[in-house]
Amino acid sequence: MTTLTSQDIKTLEQTRQRLSQLTNSLASLQHLIETTHPLPPWSSLHTLSQVISQNLLSVSTHLSTHSGLLSSLAAYPLPTYPGREKEPELNQLLRKKLEPHVEDWVEDGRKAGEEIEGEVRGG
Asked: Of 78, 26, 82, which Cα lies nearest the Cα of 49?
């Protein structure tokens, strides 16, 4: 196993932070929709959607920039992790292959991204 450099660790921490920001933004939108009846004001939805869009762009750019490092890493639990009690969660976290319906989503996203990229470059 190769030892991670301080730059690699910084990249992982930045990835965690960006994903955390995205998760928090999505949770805020979910909470707003669930607690406001009938629906939140358009301006609130619009503002949150812009924040989520920026977060998605940030995550996407970061993952693309650091795809070499991120695709070469392997996760494994520490010896102190309660593997027996948390086996379902552990199995889900350590999955190597995406579930079939998730593979379809990823493929659809790739195709959409390629189409948009082609439009941007062509037009």
From this structure: 26
In one-letter notation, the amino acid at residue 79 is: P
Q: pTM for the complete prediction?
A: 0.69
Q: Dump pLDDT digits (tens) for 3-49.
A: 889 999 999 999 999 999 999 999 999 999 999 988 899 999 999 99
Q: Which residues contact 97 (CB under 8 A, 6 or more apart)?
A: none
3-state SS of 61-116 is: HHHHHCHHHHHHCCCCCCCCCCCCCCHHHHHHHCCCCCCHHHHHHHHHHHHHHHHH
